[in-house]
Amino acid sequence: MLPERMIKQLEDIVGIENFSTSPVILDAYAFQPFHKTEPGCWIRRPVAVVLPASTEEVQAVVALCHEHGLKFKAHSTGWGAMGGPGGNNVVQIDLRRMSRIVEWDEKNRFVVLEPYVCCAQVQAEAMRRGLNLHIIGAGSATSPLASCTSHIGMGWTSISTGFSGRNIMGVEWVLPSGELLRLGTCGSSDKWFCADGPGPSLRGVMRGWAGADGGLGIFTKCAVKLFHWPGPRETEVKGRFMDLDVEVPENFRVVTCIFPDAESFANAACKIGEAEIGFMMCKVAIGLTLAGLTPRYLRRIGSLPNLRAVFEAFKHQFHFVIAGNSKGDFDYQNKTLERIVDENGGIIIDISQIPLAKSIAYWDFVRAFSPPVIFRMGGNFFTAFGGDEAINCTVEQARIGEEIKRRFIAKGAILDDLGDNAWGGIYEHNLFSHTEELTLFDHRDPSHSGQVEDFAAACMNATIEHNLGGGGFAFFAGAHVHETLGPVISNYHVWQRKIKKAFDPDDISDSHYYIHAEQKKDNRK
Ligand SMILES: Cc1cc2nc3c(=O)[nH]c(=O)nc-3n(C[C@H](O)[C@H](O)[C@H](O)COP(=O)(O)OP(=O)(O)OC[C@H]3O[C@@H](n4cnc5c(N)ncnc54)[C@H](O)[C@@H]3O)c2cc1C
Fold first, then answer.
1. How far is CA 353 from CA 157, 253, 261, 343, 404, in A?
2. What is the rounded average pLDDT of the residues 325-351?
3. Is 0.85 surpassed by the pTM of this model?
4. Which residue in 176, 221, 268, 323 could disulfide with 344, CB within 3.0 to 4.6 Å?
Protein backbone atom coordinates (compact mmCIF):
# COMPACT_ATOMS: atom_id res chain seq x y z
CA MET A 1 0.00 0.00 0.00
CA LEU A 2 1.22 3.49 -0.79
CA PRO A 3 1.09 5.99 2.07
CA GLU A 4 -1.87 8.42 1.71
CA ARG A 5 0.50 11.37 1.62
CA MET A 6 2.46 9.87 -1.27
CA ILE A 7 -0.74 9.42 -3.28
CA LYS A 8 -1.46 13.12 -2.87
CA GLN A 9 2.13 13.98 -3.83
CA LEU A 10 1.95 11.79 -6.95
CA GLU A 11 -1.28 13.53 -7.96
CA ASP A 12 0.57 16.82 -7.82
CA ILE A 13 3.54 15.55 -9.85
CA VAL A 14 2.03 13.46 -12.67
CA GLY A 15 -1.73 13.99 -12.33
CA ILE A 16 -4.28 11.48 -11.06
CA GLU A 17 -4.62 9.75 -14.43
CA ASN A 18 -0.91 8.96 -14.66
CA PHE A 19 -0.40 6.63 -11.75
CA SER A 20 -2.25 3.60 -10.48
CA THR A 21 -2.40 1.34 -7.47
CA SER A 22 -5.22 -0.77 -8.88
CA PRO A 23 -4.41 -4.52 -8.64
CA VAL A 24 -5.71 -5.05 -12.19
CA ILE A 25 -3.19 -2.58 -13.59
CA LEU A 26 -0.39 -3.71 -11.31
CA ASP A 27 -0.84 -7.34 -12.32
CA ALA A 28 -0.52 -6.35 -15.97
CA TYR A 29 3.00 -5.19 -15.10
CA ALA A 30 3.74 -8.31 -13.06
CA PHE A 31 3.07 -10.67 -16.00
CA GLN A 32 6.64 -11.08 -17.28
CA PRO A 33 7.44 -14.67 -18.25
CA PHE A 34 10.68 -13.91 -20.04
CA HIS A 35 14.30 -13.35 -18.88
CA LYS A 36 14.06 -14.98 -15.49
CA THR A 37 14.82 -18.37 -14.03
CA GLU A 38 12.01 -18.64 -11.48
CA PRO A 39 9.14 -20.87 -12.63
CA GLY A 40 5.91 -19.43 -13.98
CA CYS A 41 5.09 -16.20 -15.70
CA TRP A 42 4.75 -13.79 -12.79
CA ILE A 43 7.22 -11.46 -11.16
CA ARG A 44 6.57 -9.35 -8.02
CA ARG A 45 3.66 -7.00 -8.20
CA PRO A 46 4.76 -3.32 -7.99
CA VAL A 47 3.18 -1.16 -5.23
CA ALA A 48 2.28 1.48 -7.82
CA VAL A 49 2.82 2.29 -11.46
CA VAL A 50 3.75 5.87 -12.31
CA LEU A 51 3.95 7.40 -15.78
CA PRO A 52 6.03 10.59 -15.75
CA ALA A 53 6.10 12.76 -18.89
CA SER A 54 9.35 14.70 -18.42
CA THR A 55 12.78 14.53 -16.85
CA GLU A 56 11.61 16.85 -14.06
CA GLU A 57 8.72 14.53 -13.27
CA VAL A 58 11.08 11.53 -13.20
CA GLN A 59 13.33 13.41 -10.74
CA ALA A 60 10.36 14.28 -8.55
CA VAL A 61 9.09 10.66 -8.49
CA VAL A 62 12.58 9.35 -7.60
CA ALA A 63 12.80 11.92 -4.78
CA LEU A 64 9.39 10.74 -3.51
CA CYS A 65 10.59 7.13 -3.44
CA HIS A 66 13.50 8.25 -1.27
CA GLU A 67 11.23 10.17 1.03
CA HIS A 68 8.94 7.16 1.55
CA GLY A 69 11.62 4.47 1.62
CA LEU A 70 10.40 2.71 -1.53
CA LYS A 71 12.49 1.30 -4.34
CA PHE A 72 11.84 2.18 -8.00
CA LYS A 73 12.33 0.42 -11.31
CA ALA A 74 12.25 2.01 -14.75
CA HIS A 75 11.09 0.40 -17.92
CA SER A 76 11.02 1.70 -21.45
CA THR A 77 9.27 -0.75 -23.77
CA GLY A 78 9.27 -3.39 -21.03
CA TRP A 79 10.10 -6.59 -22.90
CA GLY A 80 11.23 -8.70 -19.99
CA ALA A 81 11.26 -9.51 -16.29
CA MET A 82 14.38 -7.38 -15.83
CA GLY A 83 12.21 -4.30 -16.39
CA GLY A 84 9.89 -5.15 -13.48
CA PRO A 85 10.23 -5.29 -9.70
CA GLY A 86 12.79 -7.73 -8.36
CA GLY A 87 11.31 -7.61 -4.84
CA ASN A 88 8.62 -6.03 -2.71
CA ASN A 89 7.85 -2.34 -2.25
CA VAL A 90 8.95 -1.27 -5.71
CA VAL A 91 7.35 1.58 -7.67
CA GLN A 92 7.28 0.78 -11.38
CA ILE A 93 8.21 3.84 -13.41
CA ASP A 94 6.81 3.32 -16.89
CA LEU A 95 8.36 5.79 -19.32
CA ARG A 96 5.88 5.39 -22.18
CA ARG A 97 4.81 9.02 -22.07
CA MET A 98 8.38 10.02 -22.94
CA SER A 99 8.22 9.01 -26.59
CA ARG A 100 9.73 11.85 -28.59
CA ILE A 101 12.54 11.86 -31.12
CA VAL A 102 14.17 15.02 -29.79
CA GLU A 103 16.79 15.84 -32.41
CA TRP A 104 18.26 14.56 -35.69
CA ASP A 105 21.81 15.43 -36.60
CA GLU A 106 22.38 13.94 -40.03
CA LYS A 107 25.79 15.53 -40.50
CA ASN A 108 27.23 14.10 -37.29
CA ARG A 109 25.07 10.99 -37.58
CA PHE A 110 23.17 10.74 -34.36
CA VAL A 111 19.62 11.00 -33.10
CA VAL A 112 18.52 12.06 -29.60
CA LEU A 113 15.72 9.93 -28.18
CA GLU A 114 13.44 9.55 -25.22
CA PRO A 115 12.91 6.10 -23.63
CA TYR A 116 9.71 4.97 -25.35
CA VAL A 117 10.82 5.61 -28.93
CA CYS A 118 11.28 2.22 -30.61
CA CYS A 119 13.83 1.11 -33.21
CA ALA A 120 11.22 0.73 -35.98
CA GLN A 121 10.22 4.40 -35.69
CA VAL A 122 13.81 5.60 -35.77
CA GLN A 123 14.73 3.30 -38.65
CA ALA A 124 11.85 4.44 -40.86
CA GLU A 125 12.84 8.09 -40.35
CA ALA A 126 16.57 7.39 -40.59
CA MET A 127 16.27 5.56 -43.92
CA ARG A 128 14.60 8.62 -45.43
CA ARG A 129 17.83 10.43 -44.54
CA GLY A 130 20.10 7.69 -45.97
CA LEU A 131 20.90 6.47 -42.45
CA ASN A 132 20.21 3.44 -40.25
CA LEU A 133 20.60 2.40 -36.60
CA HIS A 134 21.76 -0.69 -34.75
CA ILE A 135 18.76 -2.84 -33.79
CA ILE A 136 19.15 -5.48 -31.09
CA GLY A 137 18.30 -9.11 -31.75
CA ALA A 138 14.99 -8.74 -29.90
CA GLY A 139 13.76 -6.75 -32.88
CA SER A 140 12.58 -3.34 -33.93
CA ALA A 141 9.80 -2.96 -31.34
CA THR A 142 12.35 -2.41 -28.58
CA SER A 143 13.70 0.83 -27.17
CA PRO A 144 17.15 1.88 -28.45
CA LEU A 145 17.56 3.96 -25.30
CA ALA A 146 16.98 0.92 -23.06
CA SER A 147 19.52 -1.17 -24.96
CA CYS A 148 22.11 1.58 -25.24
CA THR A 149 21.96 2.67 -21.62
CA SER A 150 20.81 -0.32 -19.61
CA HIS A 151 20.61 -3.78 -21.14
CA ILE A 152 23.21 -5.69 -23.20
CA GLY A 153 22.88 -4.88 -26.93
CA MET A 154 23.81 -7.52 -29.48
CA GLY A 155 22.00 -7.57 -32.81
CA TRP A 156 21.71 -9.07 -36.28
CA THR A 157 23.75 -6.41 -38.09
CA SER A 158 26.40 -6.15 -35.38
CA ILE A 159 29.13 -6.98 -37.90
CA SER A 160 28.63 -3.46 -39.24
CA THR A 161 26.59 -1.63 -36.57
CA GLY A 162 28.33 -2.85 -33.41
CA PHE A 163 26.91 -3.28 -29.94
CA SER A 164 24.43 -0.96 -28.19
CA GLY A 165 26.89 0.09 -25.48
CA ARG A 166 29.25 1.35 -28.17
CA ASN A 167 26.57 3.27 -30.06
CA ILE A 168 25.74 5.75 -27.35
CA MET A 169 26.74 9.38 -27.87
CA GLY A 170 25.65 10.90 -24.57
CA VAL A 171 22.94 10.52 -21.94
CA GLU A 172 20.72 12.48 -19.64
CA TRP A 173 20.63 10.51 -16.41
CA VAL A 174 18.51 10.89 -13.28
CA LEU A 175 20.74 9.40 -10.60
CA PRO A 176 19.28 7.30 -7.79
CA SER A 177 19.60 10.42 -5.61
CA GLY A 178 17.28 12.31 -7.99
CA GLU A 179 20.09 14.59 -9.23
CA LEU A 180 20.58 15.08 -12.96
CA LEU A 181 23.83 14.13 -14.70
CA ARG A 182 24.63 14.54 -18.39
CA LEU A 183 27.47 12.48 -19.87
CA GLY A 184 29.44 13.33 -22.97
CA THR A 185 29.46 16.59 -24.88
CA CYS A 186 25.88 17.23 -23.74
CA GLY A 187 27.35 17.53 -20.23
CA SER A 188 29.14 20.76 -21.12
CA SER A 189 27.08 22.10 -24.04
CA ASP A 190 23.77 21.44 -25.78
CA LYS A 191 25.54 19.25 -28.37
CA TRP A 192 25.26 15.46 -28.24
CA PHE A 193 27.90 14.34 -30.73
CA CYS A 194 30.30 12.49 -28.41
CA ALA A 195 29.83 10.29 -25.34
CA ASP A 196 33.36 10.71 -24.01
CA GLY A 197 34.09 14.35 -23.41
CA PRO A 198 34.88 17.23 -23.37
CA GLY A 199 32.17 16.68 -20.75
CA PRO A 200 32.77 13.90 -18.20
CA SER A 201 32.79 10.32 -19.46
CA LEU A 202 31.50 7.70 -17.12
CA ARG A 203 30.28 5.36 -19.83
CA GLY A 204 31.92 2.33 -18.27
CA VAL A 205 30.45 3.15 -14.86
CA MET A 206 27.05 3.92 -16.34
CA ARG A 207 26.66 0.68 -18.23
CA GLY A 208 29.77 -1.51 -18.49
CA TRP A 209 29.16 -4.50 -20.74
CA ALA A 210 25.67 -5.56 -19.72
CA GLY A 211 24.06 -2.38 -18.36
CA ALA A 212 22.74 -1.87 -14.86
CA ASP A 213 19.22 -3.07 -15.77
CA GLY A 214 17.57 -0.24 -13.90
CA GLY A 215 19.84 -0.57 -10.87
CA LEU A 216 21.54 2.82 -11.22
CA GLY A 217 18.77 5.37 -11.76
CA ILE A 218 16.81 6.39 -14.86
CA PHE A 219 17.94 7.55 -18.28
CA THR A 220 15.62 10.13 -19.72
CA LYS A 221 17.36 10.94 -23.02
CA CYS A 222 20.21 9.53 -25.03
CA ALA A 223 21.94 10.16 -28.31
CA VAL A 224 22.34 7.10 -30.52
CA LYS A 225 24.87 6.73 -33.32
CA LEU A 226 23.55 6.34 -36.88
CA PHE A 227 25.16 4.51 -39.79
CA HIS A 228 25.20 4.98 -43.54
CA TRP A 229 22.28 3.15 -45.21
CA PRO A 230 23.04 2.11 -48.77
CA GLY A 231 19.47 0.92 -49.46
CA PRO A 232 16.42 2.79 -50.75
CA ARG A 233 14.97 5.76 -48.85
CA GLU A 234 11.51 4.16 -48.96
CA THR A 235 10.75 0.44 -49.10
CA GLU A 236 7.40 -0.76 -50.38
CA VAL A 237 6.31 -3.58 -48.10
CA LYS A 238 3.39 -5.73 -49.27
CA GLY A 239 1.82 -8.53 -47.25
CA ARG A 240 2.70 -9.66 -43.77
CA PHE A 241 5.37 -12.08 -42.64
CA MET A 242 4.72 -15.38 -44.44
CA ASP A 243 3.34 -13.66 -47.58
CA LEU A 244 5.68 -10.70 -47.41
CA ASP A 245 6.64 -9.14 -50.71
CA VAL A 246 9.60 -6.75 -50.66
CA GLU A 247 11.96 -6.00 -53.51
CA VAL A 248 15.59 -6.84 -52.72
CA PRO A 249 17.62 -3.83 -53.94
CA GLU A 250 20.14 -4.50 -56.71
CA ASN A 251 23.07 -3.62 -54.47
CA PHE A 252 22.03 -6.20 -51.83
CA ARG A 253 22.62 -9.94 -51.74
CA VAL A 254 21.23 -12.31 -49.10
CA VAL A 255 22.94 -15.67 -48.69
CA THR A 256 23.41 -18.56 -46.30
CA CYS A 257 26.95 -19.91 -45.94
CA ILE A 258 27.26 -23.50 -44.71
CA PHE A 259 30.48 -25.13 -43.50
CA PRO A 260 31.52 -28.70 -42.77
CA ASP A 261 32.50 -28.11 -39.13
CA ALA A 262 32.90 -25.56 -36.34
CA GLU A 263 36.54 -24.92 -37.18
CA SER A 264 35.93 -23.97 -40.82
CA PHE A 265 32.93 -21.88 -39.71
CA ALA A 266 35.13 -19.94 -37.27
CA ASN A 267 38.02 -19.56 -39.73
CA ALA A 268 35.71 -18.18 -42.40
CA ALA A 269 34.18 -15.74 -39.91
CA CYS A 270 37.66 -14.50 -38.96
CA LYS A 271 38.59 -13.95 -42.60
CA ILE A 272 35.34 -12.10 -43.24
CA GLY A 273 36.12 -9.87 -40.29
CA GLU A 274 39.60 -9.15 -41.59
CA ALA A 275 38.22 -8.32 -45.03
CA GLU A 276 35.73 -5.88 -43.42
CA ILE A 277 32.87 -6.94 -45.66
CA GLY A 278 29.22 -7.50 -44.85
CA PHE A 279 26.17 -5.60 -43.63
CA MET A 280 24.66 -8.47 -41.61
CA MET A 281 26.08 -11.77 -40.44
CA CYS A 282 24.31 -14.04 -38.03
CA LYS A 283 24.02 -17.71 -37.26
CA VAL A 284 20.36 -18.56 -36.77
CA ALA A 285 20.18 -22.26 -35.90
CA ILE A 286 17.91 -24.36 -38.07
CA GLY A 287 16.01 -25.44 -34.93
CA LEU A 288 15.22 -21.81 -34.19
CA THR A 289 14.03 -21.12 -37.73
CA LEU A 290 11.76 -24.18 -37.68
CA ALA A 291 10.47 -23.38 -34.17
CA GLY A 292 9.53 -19.89 -35.28
CA LEU A 293 8.07 -20.64 -38.70
CA THR A 294 6.78 -24.23 -38.48
CA PRO A 295 6.60 -25.27 -34.81
CA ARG A 296 4.23 -28.22 -35.37
CA TYR A 297 6.54 -29.60 -38.04
CA LEU A 298 9.53 -29.32 -35.70
CA ARG A 299 7.66 -31.29 -33.05
CA ARG A 300 7.04 -34.06 -35.63
CA ILE A 301 10.57 -34.38 -36.97
CA GLY A 302 11.92 -34.80 -33.45
CA SER A 303 11.31 -38.56 -33.77
CA LEU A 304 12.55 -38.95 -37.37
CA PRO A 305 16.30 -39.61 -37.19
CA ASN A 306 16.99 -39.32 -40.93
CA LEU A 307 15.30 -35.97 -41.23
CA ARG A 308 17.05 -34.77 -38.10
CA ALA A 309 20.36 -35.73 -39.68
CA VAL A 310 19.54 -33.66 -42.77
CA PHE A 311 18.83 -30.59 -40.69
CA GLU A 312 21.86 -31.14 -38.51
CA ALA A 313 24.00 -30.97 -41.64
CA PHE A 314 23.10 -27.24 -41.69
CA LYS A 315 24.50 -26.69 -38.23
CA HIS A 316 27.62 -24.69 -39.01
CA GLN A 317 26.07 -21.86 -40.94
CA PHE A 318 25.46 -18.16 -40.92
CA HIS A 319 23.25 -15.85 -42.91
CA PHE A 320 25.05 -13.02 -44.60
CA VAL A 321 23.88 -9.82 -46.27
CA ILE A 322 26.04 -7.80 -48.61
CA ALA A 323 25.09 -4.16 -49.09
CA GLY A 324 27.20 -2.51 -51.78
CA ASN A 325 28.00 1.18 -51.63
CA SER A 326 28.78 1.11 -55.36
CA LYS A 327 28.90 -1.47 -58.13
CA GLY A 328 32.64 -1.93 -57.50
CA ASP A 329 32.13 -2.33 -53.76
CA PHE A 330 29.29 -4.80 -54.28
CA ASP A 331 31.40 -6.91 -56.66
CA TYR A 332 34.39 -6.78 -54.31
CA GLN A 333 32.33 -7.96 -51.34
CA ASN A 334 30.78 -10.78 -53.37
CA LYS A 335 34.07 -12.04 -54.72
CA THR A 336 35.70 -11.84 -51.30
CA LEU A 337 32.88 -13.75 -49.64
CA GLU A 338 32.88 -16.44 -52.34
CA ARG A 339 36.62 -16.91 -52.03
CA ILE A 340 36.58 -17.13 -48.24
CA VAL A 341 33.72 -19.62 -48.19
CA ASP A 342 35.37 -21.71 -50.88
CA GLU A 343 38.75 -21.73 -49.12
CA ASN A 344 37.04 -23.02 -45.99
CA GLY A 345 35.18 -25.83 -47.72
CA GLY A 346 31.79 -24.16 -47.45
CA ILE A 347 28.91 -23.59 -49.84
CA ILE A 348 26.75 -20.54 -50.46
CA ILE A 349 23.00 -20.74 -50.91
CA ASP A 350 21.77 -17.57 -52.56
CA ILE A 351 18.49 -16.80 -50.78
CA SER A 352 18.07 -13.72 -52.99
CA GLN A 353 17.05 -16.17 -55.72
CA ILE A 354 14.33 -17.97 -53.74
CA PRO A 355 11.00 -16.13 -54.27
CA LEU A 356 9.34 -16.08 -50.80
CA ALA A 357 12.47 -16.55 -48.72
CA LYS A 358 14.21 -13.59 -50.31
CA SER A 359 11.56 -11.10 -49.16
CA ILE A 360 11.33 -12.43 -45.62
CA ALA A 361 15.06 -12.85 -45.20
CA TYR A 362 16.12 -9.53 -46.69
CA TRP A 363 13.57 -7.43 -44.85
CA ASP A 364 13.95 -9.34 -41.59
CA PHE A 365 17.72 -8.97 -41.60
CA VAL A 366 17.31 -5.22 -42.15
CA ARG A 367 14.28 -4.59 -39.95
CA ALA A 368 14.44 -7.43 -37.37
CA PHE A 369 10.66 -7.92 -37.31
CA SER A 370 10.59 -11.69 -36.66
CA PRO A 371 12.23 -12.25 -33.24
CA PRO A 372 8.94 -12.56 -31.29
CA VAL A 373 8.11 -15.75 -33.28
CA ILE A 374 10.51 -17.48 -30.90
CA PHE A 375 7.57 -17.61 -28.45
CA ARG A 376 5.42 -19.66 -30.88
CA MET A 377 6.57 -23.18 -30.10
CA GLY A 378 6.43 -23.28 -26.32
CA GLY A 379 5.35 -19.83 -25.23
CA ASN A 380 8.67 -19.05 -23.59
CA PHE A 381 12.42 -19.20 -24.00
CA PHE A 382 15.62 -18.71 -22.05
CA THR A 383 19.09 -17.85 -23.20
CA ALA A 384 22.49 -18.65 -21.72
CA PHE A 385 26.21 -18.12 -22.30
CA GLY A 386 26.45 -14.91 -24.38
CA GLY A 387 29.79 -13.69 -23.01
CA ASP A 388 31.41 -11.82 -25.88
CA GLU A 389 34.82 -13.21 -26.72
CA ALA A 390 37.08 -14.28 -29.60
CA ILE A 391 35.25 -16.55 -32.03
CA ASN A 392 37.10 -19.70 -31.02
CA CYS A 393 35.70 -19.22 -27.53
CA THR A 394 32.13 -18.50 -28.64
CA VAL A 395 32.15 -21.56 -30.92
CA GLU A 396 33.11 -23.54 -27.83
CA GLN A 397 30.27 -21.93 -25.89
CA ALA A 398 27.90 -23.19 -28.59
CA ARG A 399 29.33 -26.71 -28.47
CA ILE A 400 29.13 -27.00 -24.71
CA GLY A 401 25.75 -25.27 -24.62
CA GLU A 402 24.37 -27.85 -27.03
CA GLU A 403 25.75 -30.70 -24.91
CA ILE A 404 24.05 -29.32 -21.81
CA LYS A 405 20.82 -28.81 -23.69
CA ARG A 406 20.78 -32.33 -25.03
CA ARG A 407 20.76 -33.60 -21.44
CA PHE A 408 17.77 -31.41 -20.61
CA ILE A 409 15.97 -32.36 -23.84
CA ALA A 410 16.54 -36.07 -23.12
CA LYS A 411 14.79 -35.83 -19.76
CA GLY A 412 11.90 -33.82 -21.23
CA ALA A 413 12.79 -30.71 -19.21
CA ILE A 414 12.78 -28.39 -22.23
CA LEU A 415 11.48 -28.59 -25.81
CA ASP A 416 13.41 -30.44 -28.49
CA ASP A 417 14.76 -27.83 -30.92
CA LEU A 418 17.32 -30.27 -32.39
CA GLY A 419 19.77 -29.35 -29.62
CA ASP A 420 21.83 -26.77 -31.47
CA ASN A 421 20.09 -23.44 -31.05
CA ALA A 422 23.00 -21.06 -31.06
CA TRP A 423 22.47 -17.48 -32.22
CA GLY A 424 25.10 -14.84 -32.93
CA GLY A 425 28.01 -13.81 -35.10
CA ILE A 426 31.05 -11.59 -35.30
CA TYR A 427 30.83 -7.97 -34.24
CA GLU A 428 32.56 -4.91 -35.59
CA HIS A 429 34.42 -6.92 -38.20
CA ASN A 430 35.51 -9.56 -35.70
CA LEU A 431 36.65 -7.28 -32.91
CA PHE A 432 34.71 -9.82 -30.87
CA SER A 433 32.12 -12.52 -31.36
CA HIS A 434 28.83 -13.42 -29.71
CA THR A 435 26.99 -16.72 -29.25
CA GLU A 436 24.06 -17.45 -27.01
CA GLU A 437 22.40 -20.81 -26.56
CA LEU A 438 18.63 -20.51 -26.78
CA THR A 439 16.31 -22.88 -24.97
CA LEU A 440 12.61 -23.23 -25.68
CA PHE A 441 10.15 -24.31 -23.02
CA ASP A 442 6.55 -24.06 -21.93
CA HIS A 443 6.16 -22.47 -18.50
CA ARG A 444 2.67 -24.06 -18.24
CA ASP A 445 4.10 -27.57 -18.59
CA PRO A 446 4.80 -29.08 -15.13
CA SER A 447 7.73 -31.10 -16.48
CA HIS A 448 9.45 -27.86 -17.61
CA SER A 449 8.66 -25.94 -14.46
CA GLY A 450 11.71 -25.12 -12.35
CA GLN A 451 14.12 -26.52 -14.95
CA VAL A 452 15.32 -23.17 -16.27
CA GLU A 453 17.08 -22.40 -13.02
CA ASP A 454 19.01 -25.67 -13.28
CA PHE A 455 19.81 -25.03 -16.91
CA ALA A 456 21.08 -21.50 -16.17
CA ALA A 457 23.22 -22.84 -13.30
CA ALA A 458 24.65 -25.62 -15.50
CA CYS A 459 25.63 -23.06 -18.15
CA MET A 460 27.20 -20.74 -15.58
CA ASN A 461 29.18 -23.60 -14.04
CA ALA A 462 30.37 -24.68 -17.49
CA THR A 463 31.52 -21.11 -18.19
CA ILE A 464 33.70 -21.27 -15.08
CA GLU A 465 34.86 -24.86 -15.57
CA HIS A 466 35.84 -24.42 -19.25
CA ASN A 467 37.02 -20.83 -18.91
CA LEU A 468 34.54 -19.59 -21.50
CA GLY A 469 35.15 -15.89 -20.93
CA GLY A 470 32.80 -13.42 -19.25
CA GLY A 471 29.76 -14.41 -17.26
CA GLY A 472 27.49 -13.62 -20.20
CA PHE A 473 23.80 -13.82 -19.38
CA ALA A 474 24.25 -15.57 -16.03
CA PHE A 475 22.79 -12.43 -14.36
CA PHE A 476 19.32 -13.35 -15.66
CA ALA A 477 19.24 -15.64 -12.62
CA GLY A 478 19.59 -12.54 -10.39
CA ALA A 479 22.29 -10.40 -8.76
CA HIS A 480 23.50 -13.28 -6.55
CA VAL A 481 25.43 -14.83 -9.49
CA HIS A 482 28.05 -12.08 -9.26
CA GLU A 483 29.24 -13.52 -5.96
CA THR A 484 30.06 -16.79 -7.80
CA LEU A 485 31.39 -15.31 -11.03
CA GLY A 486 33.28 -12.33 -9.58
CA PRO A 487 36.03 -14.29 -7.83
CA VAL A 488 36.94 -16.07 -11.10
CA ILE A 489 36.69 -12.94 -13.28
CA SER A 490 39.09 -10.38 -11.79
CA ASN A 491 36.81 -9.76 -8.80
CA TYR A 492 34.64 -7.55 -10.95
CA HIS A 493 31.82 -7.82 -8.41
CA VAL A 494 33.89 -5.86 -5.88
CA TRP A 495 34.18 -2.93 -8.30
CA GLN A 496 30.58 -3.22 -9.41
CA ARG A 497 29.45 -3.00 -5.77
CA LYS A 498 31.67 0.06 -5.22
CA ILE A 499 29.91 1.78 -8.12
CA LYS A 500 26.51 0.82 -6.77
CA LYS A 501 27.41 2.11 -3.31
CA ALA A 502 28.80 5.39 -4.64
CA PHE A 503 25.72 6.11 -6.72
CA ASP A 504 23.00 4.45 -4.68
CA PRO A 505 24.10 3.74 -1.09
CA ASP A 506 20.49 3.22 0.04
CA ASP A 507 19.86 0.61 -2.70
CA ILE A 508 16.76 2.46 -3.83
CA SER A 509 17.13 1.75 -7.57
CA ASP A 510 15.96 -1.88 -7.79
CA SER A 511 19.09 -3.98 -8.28
CA HIS A 512 17.67 -7.44 -8.69
CA TYR A 513 19.54 -7.83 -12.00
CA TYR A 514 22.53 -5.61 -11.11
CA ILE A 515 24.22 -5.80 -7.71
CA HIS A 516 23.07 -4.81 -4.23
CA ALA A 517 24.90 -2.13 -2.26
CA GLU A 518 25.52 -4.62 0.54
CA GLN A 519 26.09 -8.32 0.02
CA LYS A 520 23.05 -10.22 1.24
CA LYS A 521 22.95 -13.74 2.61
CA ASP A 522 20.55 -14.60 -0.21
CA ASN A 523 20.57 -11.95 -2.91
CA ARG A 524 17.40 -13.37 -4.35
CA LYS A 525 15.36 -11.96 -1.47
C1 LIG B 1 12.83 -12.55 -28.59
C2 LIG B 1 13.86 -11.76 -27.85
C3 LIG B 1 15.14 -11.70 -28.35
C4 LIG B 1 16.09 -10.96 -27.69
N5 LIG B 1 17.31 -10.83 -28.26
C6 LIG B 1 18.17 -9.92 -27.76
C7 LIG B 1 19.37 -9.62 -28.43
O8 LIG B 1 19.69 -10.20 -29.44
N9 LIG B 1 20.16 -8.66 -27.92
C10 LIG B 1 19.84 -8.00 -26.78
O11 LIG B 1 20.58 -7.12 -26.37
N12 LIG B 1 18.74 -8.30 -26.11
C13 LIG B 1 17.90 -9.22 -26.57
N14 LIG B 1 16.75 -9.51 -25.89
C15 LIG B 1 16.53 -8.91 -24.59
C16 LIG B 1 16.23 -7.48 -24.90
O17 LIG B 1 17.44 -6.79 -24.77
C18 LIG B 1 15.35 -6.75 -24.15
O19 LIG B 1 14.17 -7.41 -24.30
C20 LIG B 1 15.45 -5.40 -24.84
O21 LIG B 1 16.44 -4.58 -24.28
C22 LIG B 1 14.25 -4.80 -24.95
O23 LIG B 1 13.89 -4.28 -23.75
P24 LIG B 1 13.16 -2.99 -23.78
O25 LIG B 1 13.69 -2.17 -24.90
O26 LIG B 1 11.72 -3.32 -23.79
O27 LIG B 1 13.69 -2.46 -22.45
P28 LIG B 1 13.07 -2.67 -21.05
O29 LIG B 1 12.56 -4.04 -20.83
O30 LIG B 1 12.16 -1.53 -20.88
O31 LIG B 1 14.38 -2.48 -20.20
C32 LIG B 1 15.46 -3.34 -20.24
C33 LIG B 1 16.22 -3.11 -18.94
O34 LIG B 1 16.71 -1.78 -18.91
C35 LIG B 1 16.15 -1.06 -17.81
N36 LIG B 1 15.71 0.23 -18.35
C37 LIG B 1 14.88 0.43 -19.38
N38 LIG B 1 14.71 1.71 -19.61
C39 LIG B 1 15.45 2.35 -18.69
C40 LIG B 1 15.68 3.70 -18.42
N41 LIG B 1 15.13 4.64 -19.16
N42 LIG B 1 16.49 4.02 -17.39
C43 LIG B 1 17.07 3.05 -16.62
N44 LIG B 1 16.89 1.74 -16.84
C45 LIG B 1 16.08 1.40 -17.87
C46 LIG B 1 14.99 -1.85 -17.30
O47 LIG B 1 14.81 -1.69 -15.92
C48 LIG B 1 15.39 -3.25 -17.67
O49 LIG B 1 16.19 -3.79 -16.67
C50 LIG B 1 15.78 -10.29 -26.49
C51 LIG B 1 14.50 -10.35 -25.98
C52 LIG B 1 13.54 -11.09 -26.65
C53 LIG B 1 12.16 -11.14 -26.08
1. 21, 9, 26, 23, 37
2. 97
3. yes
4. 268
